[in-house]
Amino acid sequence: MTTYKAIKVADVVPGERVAVFGIGGLGHLAVQYARLVGAEVIAVDLTEEKLELARELGADHTVNAATTDPVQAIADLGGADVAVALAVTPKAFEQAFAALRRGGRLVCVALPPEGDGPMHLPIFETVLKGISVIGSIVGTRQDLAEVFRLHALGRTRVIAESRRLDQVNEAIDDVLNARTAARLVFDF
């Protein structure tokens, strides 16, 4: 529901270009929701495995930010109308902002760990390009009902790995070190 709400508050319309920064538990769903509203989707991540997942889920373009400057790569495509920041570093938020074209919307979703510093936004560029910065958190009961309906219709896929409860410490370590494709689910 979190990324569904992010796509909703960005007012994405068909044909717009949406860049999803961070393909994981939230990002793999953001790719699908952006596609559902008719957007051209750019997936940005640091690992090739997550970018392959994004391609499988319908991303039109992928950018490996570990080897390519995502701002330049997205500019080469014409810039993004919307950038959804799901990676938990201020650098990723700043890259998402810089990848926007005139009139673009930055949707801030991820919450970096405490002490990771502020996000710096250039005032002149924000004003002169008419950029909007939008905070988006979770959603409403109606959003949840819509997400469940889309999933029941087979329009989205949740990618999840099962783990036993006694593997909780390893699971947390895997999530923190980006060694999971998307979501982890504990079996009881």
Automatic annotation (TrEMBL):
* Co-factor(s): Zn(2+)
Does Ion transport count among this protein's keywords? Answer: no
**Pfam families reported in the protein's UniProt record:** ADH_zinc_N
- The lineage's top-level taxon is Bacteria
Query: EC annotation?
Result: 1.1.1.1
Reply yes or no: does the keyword Oxidoreductase apply.
Answer: yes
What keywords appear on the UniProt entry? Metal-binding, Oxidoreductase, Zinc
Q: What is this protein called?
A: alcohol dehydrogenase
Q: Where is the Alcohol dehydrogenase-like C-terminal domain?
A: 25-150
PANTHER family, per database record: ALCOHOL DEHYDROGENASE 1-RELATED, VACUOLAR PROTEIN SORTING-ASSOCIATED PROTEIN 11
